[in-house]
Amino acid sequence: MVATPAQADFGPARLTVLSDEMAEQVGAVDRLRASHAFVEVEPLAAGSWWLLATETWEEYGPEQANRLFELLAPVLPAGRPEMTQWRFPTIADPPVLVTLPNLVAERDPREITG
């Protein structure tokens, strides 16, 4: 899903997809690349941008979440994020539900954007 700024109801994550318009609002693709907050900044065929923060899930933590939050604050919705616990089954016999940690900046983007 590619959101427009008016539809954005998510926060940055290890993998973020931004529309061209949203990429321009955060300073354009050159700024995203120069930030070194992403290991990949690549165009998608639909005209959006694939932003990958770390090579692996293990490398992604609070430090990366905060860096992405500050960089992407201009396109994030106002207000603190709602925290949801995501549970996924593992490939085990029998499957076991695993709860993933919420690795997001629990702040309001207006702290940065005013």
Tell me what the structure shows:
This protein is α+β, with helices and mostly antiparallel strands. The protein has four helices and five strands, in the order E-H-H-E-E-H-E-E-H. Strands 1-3-2 form a three-stranded antiparallel β-sheet. The chain has a two-stranded antiparallel ribbon with strand order 4-5. The chain is globular.
List the helices and strands and how they pair.
Elements: E1 15-19, H1 20-25, H2 28-34, E2 40-43, E3 48-52, H3 62-72, E4 86-89, E5 97-100, H4 110-113
Antiparallel strand pairs: 1-3, 2-3, 4-5
Quickly describe the structure.
It is built from four helices and five strands; from the N terminus they run βααββαββα. By secondary structure, the chain is an alpha+beta fold. The relative contact order is 0.20.
**How many strand elements?**
5
Overall 3D shape:
globular
Question: Could you list the spans in which at least 5 consecutive residues all have pLDDT below 50?
Answer: 1-10
Portion of residues within helices: 10-25%
Question: What composes the largest sheet?
Answer: 3 strands, antiparallel
Task: List the keywords.
globular, two-stranded antiparallel ribbon, 3-stranded antiparallel beta sheet, 114 residues, alpha+beta
